[in-house]
Amino acid sequence: MSTPNLVTGATVGQYRVVGPIGRGGMGGVVEVEDATGARFAMKSPIVDVGGGGEITRRFAREANALRMLEHPNLVGAVDVFVEGGALFLVMEKVVGRTLTKAVEAGLPIRQTLVFVRQILDGVGHAHGQGLVHRDLKPDN
């Protein structure tokens, strides 16, 4: 399996790749910017090689589900497009550190619980829409 070539400076759709953010369970995540300079996170799936398109189908379901969700504690979808046979999901870029990093840095338990409650509110909203987050962890 491979991911589309998302090197820094490349243009994909209407976005320029700024640099890598990380990898998820289904593919890579890069920071991109549009023509106005606004920054986003863009996910691209691992390309199905002999997989019958299952990864692409799952990724498409994730992208469509995210577009339907609106909640202050959930990342919003900005754009979904296909280029070069690959599907891309552009999302709001979250700035800050992960819950794991915050706790390791000494985040007080009260504030940790506030963040956990916000996470649960968002996940509860998604569950209410029939969606399940399959990779929920404090490093996300």
Describe the overall structure.
The protein is α+β, with helices and mostly antiparallel strands. The protein has 2 domains: 1-95, Phosphorylase Kinase, domain 1; 96-135, no CATH class. It has helices spanning 54-68, 99-104, 109-128, and strands spanning 11-12, 15-24, 27-33, 39-45, 77-83, 86-92. Strands 1-2-3-4-6-5 form a 6-stranded antiparallel β-sheet, covered by helices on one side.
Strand-helix topology:
Elements: E1 11-12, E2 15-24, E3 27-33, E4 39-45, H1 54-68, E5 77-83, E6 86-92, H2 99-104, H3 109-128
Antiparallel strand pairs: 1-2, 2-3, 3-4, 4-6, 5-6
Q: Quick one: how many beta strands?
A: 6
Per the CATH scheme, the topology name of the largest domain is Phosphorylase Kinase, domain 1
Shape: globular
The Cα radius of gyration reads 16 Å
Order of strands across the widest beta sheet?
1-2-3-4-6-5
Total count of helical runs of at least 4 residues: 3
Which short descriptors sum up this protein?
140 residues; alpha+beta; Phosphorylase Kinase, domain 1; 2 domains; six-stranded antiparallel β-sheet; 3 helices
